[in-house]
Write a structure and sequence with these properties.
- This protein has 463 residues and is mainly α.
- It has one domain.
- The termini are far apart.
- This is Probable multidrug resistance protein NorM.
- GO terms for molecular function: antiporter activity; xenobiotic transmembrane transporter activity.
- Keywords: Antiport, Cell membrane, Ion transport, Membrane, Transmembrane, Transmembrane helix, Transport.
Length: 463
């Protein structure tokens, strides 16, 4: 098996989907797992169990997305060094990533776990869902080091140009997780906390398998993953990864705040609306991971192109990334519009919960076309290391557009859950406009710079 790949060669129209497809499928598997978690829990614990997972998982997603963002900094740095054939630099980046992951994961897990009840209270968690949500959050935080470990290890694998192995690992873990759900929630009657326990066990296995692969199938040895500190590598990982972590966390925070707004709606049954929102959010998480996965793949390819100084190639990466991502989005729009009811029934929704969920889902489905137009240029910018720029755009779109608009139209104007749904595509539209302006400038500057350097080199050679 070819465990690494040079992404600076070949037809982009073919290279991108071949590299991105495992990214997309791995992300979709993770989201499908979230849907299965909720469906199985609702089957045994009812509407309250679904609402509990819906609220607690928003906090979990916030933390996990931050971990993914931090790891993406390592993917980009490793990709750039691998593209430049700097093998020793790759090793230093790996060891430094291990140190950073430990420094962040352990205190975060302890802090969120200890403050679980207070955090859930701030989210206006319905009383009927409080205990289940608390159990889910505490158990999930206990497994947070495994999440950081897997994200870090998969970042190394993807930085080497291999996206298939992470997919295979996620696929195996997803099957195990679903099986464990039936054991912990159904057979052992551990309730909502049992669903989290099943996920933690699967995450631990994923990290172990990823480490085993790197040690056995690549030039890396176990000692390369011991915590070590290289100042230059740490600076680059934080410089690239921290803004992405903040960007991911900010997006998650905005959806978490939407949960607060939903829980404050003046309706007859808050639990019904909370459950409908939670179920729609699970599907939404599933739908948006396709373009987000494409963006991650684009960043990895662009990083190698930048390292190899093949800047013109990045225009093709952008073009084909948009084409593929919008095509994926169109499929999910059709599913949301014509099969939304079936999806909600599969998750145990009926009556008012079913009606509220369908109305909300139809409105947010516009995001499945608009989001790709934002995250694809984000992928290009990230590959260039311009993560501070994408962070700024995302920060404004998430907290300056999505949340205020949701509050205005949902609470002040009284349109309820359905109206809140429009805030999501509106934020993506804002981000898309800003991202395209930025990416055009960055691409033009890099190509002009490369042209000047090439001209200067030719003149010097002739002299």
């Amino acid at each position: 098996m070819n465990v690494s790949k040079n992404l600076t060669q070949g037809n982009v129209a073919k290279v991108l989907p071949l590299f991105a497809f495992p990214y997309l499928l791995a992300n979709l598997l993770q989201a499908a797992l979230g849907i299965a978690d909720m469906g199985i829990t609702a089957m045994y614990c009812g509407e309250g169990g679904a609402a509990a997972i819906g609220v607690a998982s928003q906090i979990v997603y916030l933390v996990v997305n931050a971990a993914t963002g931090l790891a993406s900094g390592a993917t980009i740095l490793i990709g750039q060094r691998y593209g430049a054939e700097d093998r020793e630099g790759v090793r230093k980046a790996v060891a430094t990533l291990t140190s950073i992951s430990l420094m962040v994961a352990v205190p975060t897990a302890i802090g969120v776990g200890v403050g679980a009840k207070g955090l859930l209270g701030l989210l206006q968690t319905p009383p009927e869902a409080m205990e289940g949500a608390k159990a889910y959050l505490i158990v999930s935080m206990a497994g947070l080091p495994f999440v950081f470990a897997y994200n870090g290890l998969s970042a190394v694998i993807r930085g080497l140009g291999n996206s298939k192995i992470p997919l295979m690992i996620i696929g195996g873990a997803a099957i195990l997780n679903i099986g464990l759900d039936f054991v912990t929630v159904g057979l052992l009657k551990w309730g909502v906390g049992g669903a989290a326990a099943a996920t933690v066990l699967a995450e631990a296995l994923s990290a172990a398998v990823a480490l085993g692969f790197l040690v056995r199938k690549t030039p890396f040895r176990l000692g390369d993953f011991k915590p070590a500190w290289d100042k230059a590598s740490a600076k680059e990982i934080v410089k690239i990864g921290f803004p992405t972590a903040v960007q991911n966390a900010t997006a998650s925070l905005s959806f978490l705040l939407l949960t607060v707004i939903v829980n404050r709606l003046q309706v007859a049954s808050v639990l019904t609306v909370a459950a409908a929102h939670a179920m729609a959010t699970k599907f939404n998480n599933f739908a948006v991971l396709a373009p987000r996965g494409m963006s991650q793949a684009m960043a990895a390819i662009v990083a190698q192109n930048v390292g190899a100084k093949k800047f013109r190639r990045n225009r093709s990466v952008l073009l084909w990334g948009v084409i593929y991502s919008v095509a994926f989005g169109a499929v999910f729009v059709l599913v949301a519009m014509f099969a939304g009811g079936a999806i909600f029934r599969m998750l145990g929704a009926e009556g008012e919960t079913l009606a509220a969920g369908i109305g909300y889902l139809k409105r947010i489905s516009a995001d499945y076309i608009l989001l790709p137009l934002a995250v694809c240029p984000f992928g290009i910018l990230d590959g260039y290391g311009k993560t501070s720029l994408t962070m700024t755009i995302n920060l404004i779109g998430s907290l300056g557009v999505r949340v205020p608009f949701a509050y205005l139209i949902g609470i002040v104007k009284g349109t309820g859950l359905a109206g809140i749904g429009w805030s999501i595509p509106l934020a993506s539209l804002f981000c898309a406009i800003c991202a395209w302006i930025a990416v055009v400038v960055v691409l033009q500057r890099s190509i002009k710079k490369a042209t000047r350097q090439s001209t200067s080199l030719s003149v010097n050679t002739e002299s």
